[in-house]
# Entry
Amino acid sequence: MPARLVTVFAFLNTCDLRTFGGREPDDELAEWLGTCEPAEYELAFALRRTLRAMARANRTGELDPGVATEFDRVSAALPLRARSNGDGGLGAGAANGGIAGTLADVLASVVVASADGSWVRMKECAAPDCRWIFYDHAKPRNSRWCSTAGCGNRMKTRAYRSRTA
Ligand SMILES: [Zn+2]
# Structure
Protein backbone atom coordinates (compact mmCIF):
# COMPACT_ATOMS: atom_id res chain seq x y z
CA MET A 1 0.00 0.00 0.00
CA PRO A 2 1.37 3.45 -0.85
CA ALA A 3 2.51 5.33 2.28
CA ARG A 4 -0.04 8.08 1.70
CA LEU A 5 -2.90 5.60 2.10
CA VAL A 6 -1.76 4.14 5.42
CA THR A 7 -3.51 6.81 7.50
CA VAL A 8 -6.59 6.65 5.23
CA PHE A 9 -6.67 2.88 5.75
CA ALA A 10 -6.52 3.28 9.56
CA PHE A 11 -9.19 6.00 9.50
CA LEU A 12 -11.64 4.00 7.37
CA ASN A 13 -11.19 0.85 9.46
CA THR A 14 -11.97 2.65 12.75
CA CYS A 15 -15.40 1.36 11.68
CA ASP A 16 -14.89 -2.37 12.19
CA LEU A 17 -17.96 -4.31 11.03
CA ARG A 18 -16.35 -7.77 11.10
CA THR A 19 -18.67 -10.27 12.79
CA PHE A 20 -17.26 -13.57 11.48
CA GLY A 21 -15.67 -15.94 13.98
CA GLY A 22 -17.74 -14.52 16.85
CA ARG A 23 -16.39 -10.96 16.56
CA GLU A 24 -18.38 -7.95 17.77
CA PRO A 25 -18.59 -4.84 15.55
CA ASP A 26 -16.52 -1.99 16.93
CA ASP A 27 -16.17 1.73 16.32
CA GLU A 28 -12.92 3.39 17.32
CA LEU A 29 -13.45 6.76 15.65
CA ALA A 30 -13.59 8.61 19.00
CA GLU A 31 -10.29 7.05 20.12
CA TRP A 32 -8.70 7.75 16.74
CA LEU A 33 -9.70 11.43 16.86
CA GLY A 34 -8.89 12.05 20.51
CA THR A 35 -10.48 15.03 22.25
CA CYS A 36 -12.92 16.77 19.93
CA GLU A 37 -16.12 18.79 19.74
CA PRO A 38 -19.40 17.08 18.79
CA ALA A 39 -19.44 18.99 15.47
CA GLU A 40 -15.92 17.72 14.67
CA TYR A 41 -16.96 14.17 15.46
CA GLU A 42 -19.97 14.55 13.13
CA LEU A 43 -17.71 15.80 10.37
CA ALA A 44 -15.27 12.91 10.85
CA PHE A 45 -18.15 10.45 10.89
CA ALA A 46 -19.58 11.88 7.65
CA LEU A 47 -16.16 11.87 5.95
CA ARG A 48 -15.60 8.25 6.94
CA ARG A 49 -19.07 7.24 5.76
CA THR A 50 -18.63 8.88 2.33
CA LEU A 51 -15.10 7.52 1.82
CA ARG A 52 -16.20 4.01 2.84
CA ALA A 53 -19.09 4.25 0.36
CA MET A 54 -16.57 5.27 -2.31
CA ALA A 55 -14.29 2.37 -1.38
CA ARG A 56 -17.30 0.08 -1.82
CA ALA A 57 -17.93 1.64 -5.23
CA ASN A 58 -14.27 0.96 -6.10
CA ARG A 59 -15.21 -2.72 -5.97
CA THR A 60 -18.79 -2.70 -7.23
CA GLY A 61 -18.56 0.11 -9.78
CA GLU A 62 -21.74 1.66 -8.37
CA LEU A 63 -21.81 4.62 -6.03
CA ASP A 64 -24.73 4.76 -3.58
CA PRO A 65 -27.17 7.63 -4.27
CA GLY A 66 -26.45 10.75 -2.27
CA VAL A 67 -22.79 9.97 -1.61
CA ALA A 68 -21.43 12.49 -4.11
CA THR A 69 -23.59 15.24 -2.59
CA GLU A 70 -22.53 14.36 0.93
CA PHE A 71 -18.90 14.22 -0.14
CA ASP A 72 -19.18 17.77 -1.52
CA ARG A 73 -20.75 18.98 1.70
CA VAL A 74 -18.05 17.40 3.90
CA SER A 75 -15.25 18.49 1.61
CA ALA A 76 -16.46 22.11 1.68
CA ALA A 77 -16.18 22.07 5.49
CA LEU A 78 -12.51 21.01 5.48
CA PRO A 79 -9.49 23.35 5.23
CA LEU A 80 -7.86 21.76 2.19
CA ARG A 81 -5.27 23.64 0.15
CA ALA A 82 -3.24 22.90 -2.94
CA ARG A 83 0.45 23.47 -2.35
CA SER A 84 3.73 23.42 -4.21
CA ASN A 85 6.08 20.54 -3.45
CA GLY A 86 9.02 22.84 -4.15
CA ASP A 87 10.21 20.85 -7.18
CA GLY A 88 7.60 22.05 -9.63
CA GLY A 89 5.15 19.38 -8.54
CA LEU A 90 1.91 20.05 -6.74
CA GLY A 91 0.33 18.40 -3.76
CA ALA A 92 -2.47 19.00 -1.32
CA GLY A 93 -2.74 19.19 2.43
CA ALA A 94 -4.43 20.75 5.44
CA ALA A 95 -4.39 24.55 5.64
CA ASN A 96 -4.43 24.43 9.43
CA GLY A 97 -4.28 22.06 12.39
CA GLY A 98 -6.79 20.57 14.77
CA ILE A 99 -9.33 17.87 14.01
CA ALA A 100 -10.47 19.58 10.80
CA GLY A 101 -6.81 19.68 9.69
CA THR A 102 -6.36 15.97 10.43
CA LEU A 103 -9.46 15.21 8.37
CA ALA A 104 -8.30 17.55 5.59
CA ASP A 105 -5.02 15.60 5.44
CA VAL A 106 -6.98 12.35 5.08
CA LEU A 107 -9.02 13.91 2.28
CA ALA A 108 -5.87 15.31 0.63
CA SER A 109 -4.35 11.82 0.60
CA VAL A 110 -7.46 10.44 -1.08
CA VAL A 111 -7.48 13.23 -3.68
CA VAL A 112 -3.81 12.66 -4.54
CA ALA A 113 -4.32 8.86 -4.56
CA SER A 114 -7.32 9.37 -6.82
CA ALA A 115 -5.10 11.25 -9.27
CA ASP A 116 -2.25 8.70 -9.20
CA GLY A 117 -4.57 5.69 -9.61
CA SER A 118 -4.03 4.08 -6.20
CA TRP A 119 -7.34 5.12 -4.61
CA VAL A 120 -9.37 2.81 -6.89
CA ARG A 121 -7.48 -0.07 -5.22
CA MET A 122 -8.93 0.80 -1.81
CA LYS A 123 -12.01 -1.41 -1.56
CA GLU A 124 -14.55 -2.73 0.87
CA CYS A 125 -14.38 -6.51 1.32
CA ALA A 126 -17.33 -8.20 -0.42
CA ALA A 127 -18.06 -10.50 2.53
CA PRO A 128 -21.16 -9.05 4.24
CA ASP A 129 -19.85 -10.17 7.65
CA CYS A 130 -16.52 -8.43 7.05
CA ARG A 131 -16.62 -5.17 5.02
CA TRP A 132 -13.00 -4.42 6.02
CA ILE A 133 -11.35 -1.81 3.81
CA PHE A 134 -8.35 -3.35 2.04
CA TYR A 135 -5.80 -2.45 -0.60
CA ASP A 136 -6.12 -4.54 -3.77
CA HIS A 137 -2.58 -5.55 -4.76
CA ALA A 138 -3.72 -7.69 -7.70
CA LYS A 139 -2.40 -6.44 -11.01
CA PRO A 140 -5.81 -6.69 -12.77
CA ARG A 141 -7.38 -4.90 -9.76
CA ASN A 142 -10.09 -7.55 -9.45
CA SER A 143 -9.83 -8.63 -5.79
CA ARG A 144 -13.12 -8.84 -3.92
CA TRP A 145 -11.96 -10.06 -0.52
CA CYS A 146 -9.65 -8.57 2.09
CA SER A 147 -8.17 -12.07 2.28
CA THR A 148 -8.59 -14.85 -0.27
CA ALA A 149 -7.73 -17.49 2.33
CA GLY A 150 -10.10 -16.00 4.92
CA CYS A 151 -13.15 -14.17 3.54
CA GLY A 152 -12.78 -15.59 0.01
CA ASN A 153 -12.80 -19.18 1.23
CA ARG A 154 -15.59 -18.60 3.73
CA MET A 155 -17.86 -17.03 1.08
CA LYS A 156 -17.08 -19.74 -1.50
CA THR A 157 -17.83 -22.47 1.04
CA ARG A 158 -21.10 -20.73 1.96
CA ALA A 159 -22.12 -20.37 -1.71
CA TYR A 160 -21.27 -24.05 -2.31
CA ARG A 161 -23.35 -25.15 0.68
CA SER A 162 -26.36 -23.09 -0.42
CA ARG A 163 -26.14 -24.60 -3.92
CA THR A 164 -25.96 -28.19 -2.63
CA ALA A 165 -28.42 -27.86 0.26
ZN1 LIG B 1 -12.94 -9.62 4.45
